[in-house]
Amino acid sequence: MAKRPLPTEFIIERDEEKCIACQACVRMCSNDVHSYDPETDTVSSDSAKCVGCHFCETLCPTGALVIRRNPSEFKLNANWNAEVIKNITRQAETGGMLLTGMGCDKPYPIYWDYILLNASQVTNPSIDPLREPMELRTYIGRKPDKIEIQITNSKSQISNYKLQTSIPPQLKLETPILFSAMSYGSISLNACKSLAKAAREVGTFYNTGEGGLHRELYKYSANTIVQVASGRFGVHREYLEAAAAIEIKIGQGAKPGIGGHLPGEKVSEEISQTRMIPVGTDALSPAPHHDIYSIEDLRQLIFALKEATRYKKPVGVKISAVHNVAPIASGIVRAGADFVAIDGLRGGTGAAPTVVRDNVGIPTELAIAVVDQRLREEGIRNQASLIAAGGIRSSSDVIKAIALGADAVYIGTASLVAMGCSLCQRCYTGKCNWGIATQDPYLTKRLNPDIGTRRLVNLLRAWSLEIKEMLGGMGINAIESLRGNREQLRGVGLSDTDLKLLGIKPAGEAW
Amino acid sequence: MNYVIIGNSASGIAAIEAIREYDGKNKITVISDEPYSNYSRPLISYFLGKKVSLESVSFQEEDFYKDNKVDLILNNKATKLDLKKKYVILADGRKISFDKLLITTGGAPIVPEIKGRNFNGVFSFTTLSDAQKIEKYIKTNKVKKAVVLGGGLIGLKATEALIELKIKVTIVELADRILSATFDKKASGIIEAALEKIGCKSITNNTIAEIKGKNSKVKEVILKDKKKIPTELVIVAIGVKPNIELVKNRAINTNKGILVDNFMQTNIKDIYAAGDCCEAKDSLLNTNRPIAIWPVAKRQGKIAGYNMAGWKKEYQGSFAMNSVELCGIPTISVGESCPEKEGYQVLEYFAPEKSIYKKIVIKNKRIIGVIFVGDIERAGIYTSLIKDKVDTSDFKENLLKEDFGLISLPKEYRKHLVTGEVAIL
Amino acid sequence: MKKIIIREEYCMGCRLCEVHCLVQHSKTKNIIKAYKGEYPKPIPRIIVEEKGYVSFALQCRHCEDGPCLEACITGAMYRDKKTGAILLNEDKCIGCWMCIMVCPFGVISRNGEGKKIASKCDLCMGEKVPICVKNCPNEAIVYEEKK
Fold first, then answer.
1. CB B65 within 8 A of CB B106
2. Chains contacting C (3+ CB pairs below 8 angstroms)
């Protein structure tokens, strides 16, 4: 049989008693799933096209729609499960690489869920965050090896202590959470605006990704980290001057070792201008930077960027978490990076080959732990800040990441979910119904930046409050006291090797 | 400061409200020759057809005059004006002195010199008392058939009222079609067909030559072409002309109506005129002429009131516009809907089987007139395009489309409409 | 006075405003009964215009100088002194359609339930926020003091 229809993932259940045929679902679905028949005055649904984004279900004024996973089942087979069968069928049909969006969804162990936090009891009492000041402020950047202070006279007033050492440029964060790199092109301008405005309002930063910086976002430059990726899209003088910090992207957690890909269909006039490429051409970022073939080349680029920006901005490097992440990170710090962002296995993307996303890389938790450990052992931990990225889902993940050694975390998927994303993983089609991962003007209208900003600010505010609660519970009143503080963590259900790599004790064991 | 207003209809009421916006203290006197507090003149046909009761015919509440501190003189006609000493002389001899005077005497029915017009059962149809007299006559004489002379708006509305009362009506119209002032042949045709369906005949290109009676009551009419039509009631509705009797032969300039400038003032200082009796700016034809339509009268009265109270407000001008539902078919005509001269373009959609006709007249890329019969959805947008003299080149093809709306208009104009305030007609 | 401000750059064209306006002005005010039980169905007083990817919802602007107030021959169209909104007294309206003829936004319609009267937005008198504004999923219409 030549043609075998691609399997239907979802079934749409429509409660006919509740459906009033208002046709909102018909109009709004970018995959044309629903249709209206004027003769019978009813709406019907073609479930085969449904991607499970839940936009229609959310809009339906009577709640008549429910989206279910297709109950059509194969014979139980632990090895040749439904997904494997479907993927092979698809590839036999198309002969192409299977693409997907967002982060790895396979059931590898999620170490966050096996790590537990401490709390104070009798000795070292808890701190109430509603009554005592709780410091979440974090500085990203190179810290000097030592500082020299001159005391002008013996009276102990703060004005009599003068700092002699010059501090390298720092990024000031009001909370240890930043918005991860998501390029304009993979997401819409309205989504970028929401991230930028929220970063400004909260007092943190967002990252341009490899899409360049759109004209309308220049006014948020004080909160912008610009990325210099392998394709060098949109990298020009104003871009670097507008930035608060520069991040050289070597790799990305979702697709370590391969380059980026924005399909030509998503390259509109505005994208073309921002990325400095012709309209309609695929934006392919090569796998390596073609001018970085050794650690010395990386050092050269870092310092070229520092020279270009007169050493006024932190210049950092983003890498994927791979097997040798510890020595690699060490090399990068020695190469002069002011911060290192480590993007783990669960990191998200707009488009990546499914096999790469699901099989390449190592979990963020382990990567942060081993990098932090290595840098401390080598005595260079202060020379760069560590930013953990890839699958941070809640404030508890943030606390655990910081306790394992990170200075701050990047959130990508979580910010998109805050703006409406339901992880249907079809970002690469450019038909995102929520107006996030698309450039279609009909769809991008659906993301109102006022609402997007509000939701992101709410998310960060909520997480910050929770972090303060947990810190207070541990008897700590400043986030910097938690950094690398493995003593506050215990593992449960982990093997000895895991515990050793993470550098934490098993639950039950005291100091 | 004495404000005096002669006339108590649309313009008069609007003037009172306008004056009181600025001047809550000084005296306003209103002089009316009718016995009623105030009423909406267009409603008299609805009253005759029993769609509206006598109480509902009034336009403003009873307390309007008390709340606005207005001295209302009813049933007393203003007969003379003393321009030098500045007072109005009433029919009963009283003298009302004024500092600022507004003349809103409205329109008077045109009564042709037809032999036999004095028989009982021959009426005009412009005032509430006309309607009441007709009502009484119909009841007393058990009228079953009527002839309406004049196929214009008044005649058609009277016809509708009579049909409601189960009277068989024949319309006699001088032009080649009914509603000749506002409709073209196609539009009139639809209405004529609808009237035929309910048993009302329209005779065009004709007029009444003589009215014959018996026992001093009307019994038949003889037309110009010698045709005879038996009838028990004749309503003469061939039009109104500005009622300028009061100012004729005085220093106040008149043409067909009282001439006013763009501040509604006549050539005599402190004397204003508004409504059906005056000739003010027609912004479409760029000339002055009487436009006897309710919203125009209200606007003119308002402007006159503002200027009288001391706030200089310029009248932007108006143009002809009419909306009337006949035989269940809604119709709207605005502007120059039946142009005679050359140099214009017509877009139309004609579906007489559905009783739908839409016509748009364009000159110099601007809409100068529209007719809508049957489908009047969103007609106001076209009125606004006429008023603002918008260049339609970019969206001409969309004008008659079903989804025509603000979205079809240029974005800047639409934004101005939506965010800026609307200028008035 | 508080007015409904239109932001066409956020309108998705979902027409949920029309749905809720209809329900608000129905007899039962229950969405399922209004659509399935009531006959004839009322018409919404809000119109969504759509062309390509541009769309916006349009309803009575409650103009400071509304031409409909002057055009109304019965005085059915009046301004509510408390809210400043322009309202229609359905008992007084006789369906002459003068208001439809003069409204520059074309937001007055003929009543869809068979009554010979006009129909237009009444700012949901009695509600704190107009129902269309409350239910717009993307805040494309907002209720604010007009500056």
1. no
2. A, B
Let me know if domain C62-120 sits in CATH 3.30.70.20: yes
Chain center to CA of A477: 27
Q: What class does CATH assign to A10-96?
A: alpha beta
Chain A positions touching C30 (Cβ under 8 A) are none
Classify the C-alpha dihedral B282-B284-B285-B287 as positive or negative: positive
* C83 Rama sector, left if φ>0, alpha if ψ -120 to 50, beta otherwise: alpha
Whether residue C32 and residue A450 make contact (CB cut-off 8 A), yes or no, is: no
Domain boundaries, chain A: 10-96, 172-257+288-506
In this prediction the pTM is: 0.89
Residue pair A270/A211 in contact (Cβ under 8 Å)? The answer is no
User: Which of A16, A18, A20 is the best mutation test for C, with the most CBs of C within 10 A?
Assistant: A20
Tokens of B116: 């036999």
Query: pLDDT of chain B along its 425 residues, tens only?
Result: 899 999 999 999 999 999 999 988 999 999 999 888 888 888 899 999 888 888 888 777 778 888 889 999 999 999 999 888 998 999 999 999 999 999 999 999 998 888 888 899 999 999 999 999 999 999 999 999 999 999 999 999 999 899 889 999 999 999 999 999 899 999 999 999 999 998 899 999 999 999 999 988 999 999 999 999 999 999 999 989 999 998 887 889 999 999 999 999 999 999 999 999 999 999 988 899 999 999 999 999 999 999 999 999 999 999 999 998 888 899 999 999 888 878 899 999 999 999 999 999 999 999 999 999 999 999 999 999 999 999 999 899 999 998 899 989 888 888 777 665 444 33
C39 interfacial to chain A (CB closer than 8 Å): no
Task: Name the amino acid, one letter, at A498.
Answer: D
- Answer yes or no: are the C-beta atoms of B259 and B287 closer than 8 Å: no
- CATH fit for domain C1-59+126-147, picks 1.10.8.60, 3.40.50.1010, 3.90.180.10, 3.30.70.20: 3.30.70.20
Residue B46 with chain C: CB contacts under 8 Å:
94
Distance from CA of C142 to the nearest CA of B (A): 13
Helix segments in chain C, DSSP class H: 16-24, 31-36, 67-71, 98-102, 131-135
Residues in chain C with CB shorter than 8 Å from the CB of B323 are 96-98, 100-101
> What's the number of CA atoms in the CB half-sphere (13 Å) around residue B131?
27
**Two structure tokens written together for A307:** 């020279």
Whole-angstrom distance, CA of residue B234 vs CA of residue B217:
10
Give the start-to-end residue ranges of the domains of chain C: 1-59+126-147, 62-120
Please report the sign of the dihedral spanned by the C-alpha atoms of residue A321, residue A326, residue A332, residue A333: positive
Burial class (CB in 10 A: 0-12, 13-18, 19+), A278: exposed
B6 and B99 part of one domain? yes
CA distance A140 to A176: 9
What is the enclosing helix (H) or strand (E) of B122? strand B122-123
Helix axis angle, A325-334 relative to A364-377, nearest 10°? Answer: 50
Which residues from C are below 8 Å from A58, CB to CB?
137
Structural Rg of chain A based on CA atoms: 24
Q: φ and ψ at B412, to 5 degrees?
A: -65, -40
- Rounded (10°) angle between helices A395-404 and A364-377: 30
CB C49 within 8 A of CB C107: no
Q: Which of C12, C19, C52 sits opposite A61 (nearest CB)?
A: C19
DSSP state, residue A248 = E
Amino acid identity for residue B374 in this structure = G
Say yes or no for a CB contact (<8 Å) between B332 and C108: no
Integer angstrom CA distances of residue A376 from A372, A410, A476: 6, 22, 22
C-beta atoms of C16 and A450 within 8 A: no
Helix (H, G, I), strand (E, B) or coil at A69: strand
